[in-house]
Amino acid sequence: MQHLIRTADFSVEEIIELFKDAKEFKNMKSNKILDGKIIVTLFFENSTRTRSAFEIAAKRLGAEVVSLDVGTSSRSKGETIFDTVANINAMKPDAIIMRHSDCGLPGTLVEHVDCPIINAGDGKHAHPTQALLDLYTIREHFNDDIEGKKIAIVGDVRTSRVAGSNRRLLPRFGMEVVFVAPDCFKAEHNEHKQYDNIREIIDEVDVVMSLRTQLERHNEIFFESIQEYANDYCITSETFGNRDILLLHPGPVNRNVDISDEMLKDPRNKILEQVTNGVAVRMAILKKLVK
User: Fold this and answer.
1) Rounded CA gap, 123 and 216, in Å?
2) What structural domains and CATH numbers belong to the chain?
3) In what residue span(s) does the HTH merR-type domain sit (predicted)?
4) Which residues are annotated as a binding site for L-aspartate?
């Protein structure tokens, strides 16, 4: 039985095969591939895009979805997450999709279940399905020719599980990853080059991925106002000029903080394409792990 806890759980060959299925599923036509299967979504953190994309993906494949409201579940009565998952597992679902604020938690549960666990985001650690849909979007844009392409991930890199998964996944397909962030948001490792301002690197990159400023994940106040941050790190039409650069964002976008209103209308912005691709890629993942 295979799980998806981190992108390394799939080989390069498996990911390429996964993307072949995603391409077929992108027409969003419903089918019965997972007819009779039951998928449980267990989200201990708020989510709109990821949760709805998984639920739509499962239903497009003919599966039934059970979405548990953990905020009012047994957890609020003192039950541990391990007990909660053990009880769900005893009901014999065909997969559990989980998001939790604790780094590494989904991976600790795989030995205690009889079905695949899919990590929908764990703390600051990983968001494998987001990284896979990002890679799919980039490959689709460049007709699969991404060897040697460079991506600048801009913003709150330190707390971003999206940055964490992408920095591990994209180099496996030949891409160079660099980070752009203020000192307080820089990654704590030195594995990738880090810059203070996008202007330092903008002429060298093929893709820019802006990140949401996750102030709720920090224990300190680094800026007097969010506008102070936006003055240096918001992606604007002036930032891109007439350069042929792909613009991505995992969502939700803080308008005029992460990306300007003008750039959200720019044809180089593929954020809504990412959302569509997210359903197709998650359909492919569910087919792979559950069928």
Assistant:
1) 12
2) 7-126+275-290 (3.40.50.1370), 129-270 (3.40.50.1370)
3) 1-21
4) 77, 161, 212
Phi, psi of 102 (to 5 degrees): -85, 120
**pTM for this model (two decimals):** 0.94
Task: Give dist(CA 240, CA 253) in Å, integer.
Answer: 18
Which phi and psi angles does 97 have, rounded to 5°?
A: -105, 125
Which pLDDT value is given to residue 291? 83
CA distance 230 to 236: 10
Torsion angle, CA of 178/182/187/191, rounded to 10 degrees? 40
Q: Is 126 helix (H, G, I), strand (E, B) or coil?
A: strand
Question: Cβ distance 178 to 150 under 8 Å?
Answer: yes
Neighbours of 253 (CB within 10 A): 18
- What would you report as the CA-atom Rg of the chain, rounded to the nearest whole angstrom? 19
Contact between residue 259 and residue 272 where contact means Cβ atoms under 8 Å apart: no
Quote the CA–CA distance of 95 and 61 in Å, as a whole number. 14
Q: Are 61 and 285 in contact (CB under 8 A)?
A: no
Name the residue among 225, 205, 201, 202 with its Cα closest to residue 213.
Answer: 225
Cite the annotated binding site for carbamoyl phosphate by residue number: 49-50, 99, 127, 130, 251-252
* pLDDT bucket at 221, cuts 50 / 70 / 90: low
Give the pLDDT confidence of 141-157 residue by residue, as tens digits.
999 999 999 999 999 99
Calculate the alpha carbon distances from 288 to 6, 19, 99, 212 in Å. 15, 11, 20, 30
**Cβ atoms within 10 Å, residue 150:** 17
Tell me how far apart the terminal alpha carbons of the chain are, to the nearest angstrom.
Answer: 11
